[in-house]
Write a structure and sequence with these properties.
This protein folds into two domains: 155 residues, NAD(P)-binding Rossmann-like Domain (Rossmann fold), CATH 3.40.50; 170 residues, 2-Layer Sandwich (Dihydrodipicolinate Reductase, domain 2), CATH 3.30.360.10. It is built from ten helices and 17 strands. The strands form three sheets. It has a nine-stranded mixed beta sheet with strand order 15-14-13-12-7-11-10-8-16, covered by helices on one side. Helix 5 runs parallel beside helix 6 and helix 6 runs antiparallel to helix 10. Bound molecules: nicotinamide-adenine-dinucleotide. The site of nicotinamide-adenine-dinucleotide (NAD) has 25 residues, from helix 1.
Length: 343
Amino acid sequence: MTDRTYRVAIIGLGRMGSTIDDEFPDRSPPYSVAASCQASDRLHVVAGADIDAAKRAAFSQRWGVDALYEDYVEMIRQEDPDMIAVCTRGHLHAEMAARSAQEGVGLIFCEKAIACSMLEADAILNAVRESGSLFNSGVLRRFDLRYHQARDLIRQGEIGEPKAAVHYAATNLLHGHIHSIDTLSFLLGDPKVESIWGELHSIDHRIPDNRLDEDPYGIFQLTFANGVTAASVPAGNWEFEVLGDRGSIRMLGNGTGLQLRKNDAGRARVASEVPVAPVTEHSATQFCLEDLVLAHEEGRPTLGPVEIAHHLTEVCLALAESHRQEKRINLPLENRSLYIFHR
Ligand SMILES: NC(=O)c1ccc[n+]([C@@H]2O[C@H](COP(=O)([O-])OP(=O)(O)OC[C@H]3O[C@@H](n4cnc5c(N)ncnc54)[C@H](O)[C@@H]3O)[C@@H](O)[C@H]2O)c1
């Protein structure tokens, strides 16, 4: 194990790249990529790219970084970073992540959702596979040890065999459900999704020109290859529940609590809560970025490899396709060009 420091370059010097911690003054673990790198012994931000000169100047002043670029490709070529963090809005993710891989960057963090269409997601998948780069995306619950605790309890058989899973919150597809579906998948050990039924909030089933210019709210019911079904409830505080044949686990209030319930031995249809030691909140962004470093050093896959990000993007887009066709959709999604703009 070395203690080498990795050189990070950030594309998009806005909220996630630089300033989002200002919005949560009571939250201590670093959230933005720049703040997370500053907190890390393994990561050092050496450069930033943004088309907005004011963002570049503010970034330079805040983080003491002098290597600033308008053109991210020029930044990669000049600075030769070990890691790139794509922190622009959604419609730019695929182009920038694929290009970073093609330019030879070994470690790639890409904000979620990684693409607006499966054509774009396929381009990232191909570029990252070809370059051999390691990849994680900004589905941060996957990198949060509180969710790891829930996954491990499920894996250890504490709730018996998982049968169903639920996500609670009203949210949109590529900004929100990419998180909800990723977390459900993560909690269950990332089995493949076989099929999905979905409905968007608009009752109009037409998606003109195979394109939506707004990321729509929606609900889903999906089936994993291991037979577990998962559904969304469009209300609540970003909670997740996995129900097994001997109990259930519920992540409460956006990860702030965990409730484990086990079926009572002598009483049918009754379960009792079992205390679980709480896991302290930490920086999931830092964990995610350091996972890229550790995966590289340990010669292992990352926790959120490009294949999983690609597959779960496909699930989100298939939700919209299900609405469009008014029927359940089996994966892989045939409609590769269905495009949903997201921020
Ligand atoms: N994972 C999370 O918890 C989380 C939280 C916040 C935001 N996000 C994601 O981060 C991404 C960015 O969101 P944000 O709120 O930080 O946006 P933002 O608008 O604050 O920042 C984006 C920046 O990209 C810059 N930009 C635009 N085009 C560019 C280009 N061609 N080259 C270089 N820079 C360019 C903009 O000038 C802007 O400064 C989104 O995908 C969002 O979903 C994720």
